[in-house]
Design brief:
Elements lengths: L1 H15 L11 H12 L15 H12 L3 H25 L4 H12 L4 H5 L5 H21 L2 H15 L9 H14 L4 H21 L4 H4 L1 H6 L9 H7 L3 H17 L2 H19 L8 H21 L4 H29 L7 H18 L2
């Protein structure tokens, strides 16, 4: 069922997005410009400025070298990552639970703020979150069953995430928690697990050296310039998670139930939620697409709260209250989803000449911004 949900979403987003839609998202032109310059022989980091790892830029460069309709194909790549994100999350939620959990979780995550536009834009957020969520899912499977192929898949996807964007580090505490639990559950495989993790570290160092990634000039400035020593400006965070007040209530109930039960799956999402909250309130500026990182734990705990609340129904009043809360959750999410659909189809398809002109402006900004 998770695969069917993911495939359905992929078909939906491909059909919904016009092939020659003008630039979607503020950074899409910048990402496309990097890929274009790399395909023309410019050196990333030396001649083309960026403060992120190189994998996504080189994928776009390959598309520029191999075809003409690059913009649409770049968006198709992001749509495939969005499909993988839906698959990973629905599989993680449904694991050991009912199909209803998977359906509710997918509905919440697909109606999250800016999920549709970012799923159709050649930006970094969807690929990095998809790879990170796949790493968490396969590591959770490895913890449950002890299969080393799941560990290898998890580490491969985590490597991809680290080479797409530095914000993949937000999922690292959650991943390490599941890895430690797997180490405790399968002590007979401890040496093999350590060797595979050592190969993972070696693989990441190799990727960084092959692409000549200047870590100190890309990652360190993020930690120095954008971090505030105190919690401040909580409004963007609350705006990101409070699109539906009823969903906030279900999320609080889900977090409470997760802390109370203390299963490894629930605790891993608690760690992820706490990490993202700290990041959102310490990192400045708070870009609009940071709210997408909240969608994973909110969808998980919202689903958990909805399911747990249903088990407490005793009287007709409880059933009536439950139906009201469900309606209050679904309507704002559906309206948000509808607005995102309107946004994707709001503008008339633009000519390829205008798209090339805007892309050239981004190229000039990237080249001159690197000097």
């Amino acid at each position: 069922m998770p695969a069917l949900l993911a495939l359905t979403f992929l078909i939906f987003i491909v059909v919904l997005t016009p092939a020659d839609r003008i630039l979607i998202g503020p950074d899409e032109g910048y990402e496309l410009a990097k890929g274009l310059l790399i395909s023309q022989g410019f050196s990333l980091y030396d001649e083309v400025w960026t403060d992120q790892p190189p994998l996504h830029s080189h994928i776009l460069a390959l598309l520029f070298l191999s075809s003409d309709s690059v913009v649409h194909k770049s968006r198709i790549v992001t749509m495939i990552f969005a499909c993988l994100l839906v698959y990973a999350f629905s599989s993680f939620v449904q694991n050991g639970q009912t199909l209803c959990n998977s359906l509710i979780g997918c509905f919440i995550i697909m109606t999250s703020p800016d999920f549709l536009p970012l799923s159709a834009s050649a930006m970094l957020e969807i690929p990095v979150i998809a790879c990170s969520m796949l790493a968490v899912y396969f590591q959770y499977r490895h913890m449950l069953h002890g299969k080393l192929n799941d560990l290898v898949r998890a580490l491969c996807f985590l490597t991809m995430a680290f080479n797409v964007k530095w914000t993949s580090a937000l999922f690292l505490p959650c991943f390490l928690f599941l890895l430690i639990k797997a180490f405790q559950c399968h002590r007979n495989h401890s040496r093999i697990i350590l060797r595979v993790c050592g190969l993972f570290v070696l693989l990441n160092l190799t990727c960084l050296s092959v692409f000549h990634v200047p870590i100190f000039s890309t990652l360190i400035p993020h930690l120095q310039a954008n971090v505030s020593p105190r919690f401040e400006m909580l409004e963007p965070t609350f705006a990101a998670i409070s699109s539906s007040l009823a969903l906030v209530l279900f999320t609080i109930l889900g977090v409470w139930d997760a802390v109370k039960e203390r299963t490894n799956q629930n605790l891993s999402m608690v760690i992820l939620f706490a990490t993202i909250l700290v990041f959102a309130n310490l990192n400045r500026p708070f870009w609009f697409y940071y709210s997408l990182y909240f969608s994973i734990p909110i969808a998980f705990f919202g689903t958990l709260g909805i399911i747990r609340f249903r088990t407490t129904l005793r009287t007709k009043f409880h059933c009536f209250l439950y139906s009201v809360l469900l309606t209050s959750t679904a309507i704002p999410l559906f309206l948000s989803f509808q607005q995102q659909m309107v946004f994707l189809k709001a503008e008339e398809p633009q000519s390829s000449e205008l798209l090339r002109f805007l892309l050239l402006l981004e190229v000039e900004w990237v080249v001159f911004g690197s000097f």
